[in-house]
Write a structure and sequence with these properties.
The chain has five helices and seven strands. With 153 residues, the chain is of the alpha+beta class. The chain has a single domain, classed as Gcn5-related N-acetyltransferase (GNAT) (Aminopeptidase). The protein has a seven-stranded mixed sheet with strand order 1-2-3-4-5-7-6, with helices on both faces. The radius of gyration is 15 Å and the shape is globular. The relative contact order is 0.16. It binds coenzyme A. Coenzyme A binds next to helix 2, strand 4, helix 4, strand 5 and helix 5.
């Protein structure tokens, strides 16, 4: 499971349950800006809308064909606002950092994306480290202790 072998593929309808499982992980929920449990039906409707929305894109990260995490973005005035996670068993091996780098590489050919932007909640040291190692500039903390990371594409 080496980080340099990570690849991104667009998410498909059949990834709905996988994304739900990752989104429901207590560590992911705790580090999210929306910590509430999400019923599967609500998730399914959200996921269908996500796949149909041209301003948002969802990717599955794989290493050797094994899904190891996910990253998505929503386009807001030239900023690709990122949300990402790595499967619990695969954390701490450089994959989170590699995932951010892979998204940056994938977006180099997207003229509407000028910058990547990540918002990191107070206390999420792993994500802060991943953004910094992937070359993002840090702003913060703000008055709530959260950080913002940006990288020009
Ligand atoms: C954030 C996340 C994607 C990072 O993925 P990862 O594969 O574990 O990251 P990496 O292995 O590339 O490690 C990044 C850095 O964080 C550090 N780190 C990893 N786990 C850590 C932890 N629990 N506490 C503190 N630091 C940690 C690593 O040591 C590394 O820093 P270093 O190289 O300076 O030692 C992953 O932890 C995750 O899915 N967390 C839950 C969801 C989440 O927080 N998403 C981001 C929302 S902004």
């Amino acid at each position: 499971m080496t980080a340099d072998a990570i690849s991104l593929r667009p998410a498909r309808e059949e990834d709905c349950r996988l994304i739900y499982r990752w989104r429901s992980d207590p560590v992911v929920r705790a580090n999210s800006f929306h910590t509430e449990e999400i019923p599967y039906d609500v998730h399914r409707a959200w996921f269908a809308a996500l796949l149909a929305d041209p301003s948002r894109r969802q990717f599955i990260a794989e290493v050797g064909g094994v899904p190891v995490g996910q990253i998505r973005y929503a386009l807001e005035d030239g900023d690709a606002v990122i949300s990402y996670s790595i499967e619990g068993a695969f954390r701490g091996r450089g994959l989170g950092t590699a995932l951010l780098a892979a998204l940056r590489d994938a977006l180099r050919t997207e003229p509407e994306v000028l910058r990547l932007l990540g918002n990191v909640k107070k206390g999420n040291t792993a994500s802060r480290r991943a953004f910094l190692k992937a070359g993002f500039a840090e702003e913060g903390p703000d008055e709530e202790g959260n950080y913002r990371y940006t990288l020009a594409v």
